[in-house]
Amino acid sequence: MTLPFTLENETALITGGGSGLGLGVARCFCRAGARVILVGRREDVLAQACTELGERSAFAVQDVTNLEATESRFEALVSQHGPPTILVNNAGIHLKKPAVETRSDEFEAVLRTHLTAAQNLSRLVLPGMLERRHGNILFIASMASFMGVPRAIAYSAAKSATLGMVRTLAAEVSGEGVRVNAIAPGWIDTPMLERALDGDPERRAKILGRTPMDSFGQPDDIGWAAVYLCSSAARFVTGAVLPVDGGASIGF
C-alpha cells in the first residue's frame, strides 16, 4: 500500500450529497481521487455541488424513499457511470417534536428515509460488490445512536437502528470483500443542525457545553473520516462506528 489513503479508481454513490455532510464527503472523496455520483431530490442543489466538485462528479435527481423508482434509476446509473464501489447512505431528515406529539406517519417517514431507503440501496449495490469481492458501504449514524435526545424520538430510533444494520451487514458480507462501517457525527455546522437549533439557544449552549472541543464540527471533518474508512488504510476495519464529535460522546 504505497498510497493507503487514496480512493483512485473508486466510484462513490452518495445520497443526500448536494449539501451538508454529503457534500463534505463528496468533496473529500474527490480530493482523494474518487469519482462521485450525488443523489438527491433538488436538481439545483445537486448541479451547484457538481459545479464546485468539478469533472470527477455527476448527479442524479431521485427521491430514494421511492423504492421502485430508485431501483430503476440505479440500473441506469450503472449503465452510465459503471458500478459503484462505495455507497454512502447519508440521506436523512430531521423531525424536532415532543414524543407525545409525533404522529405515526411522521415517525414512519423518518424511518423510511434513514433506514428503508438505505437498506434498499445497500441491497442494490451488494451483488456487484460481492461479485468483484470489493466494496465499501458507509452509513451515517449520529450522537442519537448512543444517547437520548429530547424531541427527536423518530430520528433517535432511526439512528439507533442504523447501528444494527451496520453490524449485521458487516457480519454477513465482510468475508466476501465488502466492508460496512459507520460514522457517528457529533454536532456539525450544517443547514440541518441550524434547523434543529433554530430558536433554541439553550440547546445550542448545552451541546457546546458538553463538547470538550467547545465547537461545532465542519462537513469536511466527516469527509476525511469517510475517506479513511473507505480506503485501503482501513482494510481490516468493518462493523465499526467511528465517532467524529469533538469528544461529545465522552464529554461531561
Describe the structure.
The structure is a single chain. The chain is of the alpha/beta class. The protein has one domain (11-188, 220-244): NAD(P)-binding Rossmann-like Domain (Rossmann fold), CATH 3.40.50.720. It contains 8 helices and 7 strands. It has helices at 20-31, 43-53, 67-81, 104-132, 153-173, 191-197, 201-209, 219-230, and strands at 11-15, 35-40, 57-61, 86-89, 135-140, 178-185, 241-244. It has a 7-stranded parallel β-sheet with strand order 3-2-1-4-5-6-7, sandwiched between helices. The longest helix is centred in the middle third of the chain and has 29 residues, at 104-132. It is globular and about 50 Å long. The model has no long low-confidence stretch (mean pLDDT 96).
CATH architecture: 3-Layer(aba) Sandwich
The major pleated sheet works out as: 7 strands, parallel
Mean of residue pLDDT values: 96
Please give the count of helices.
8
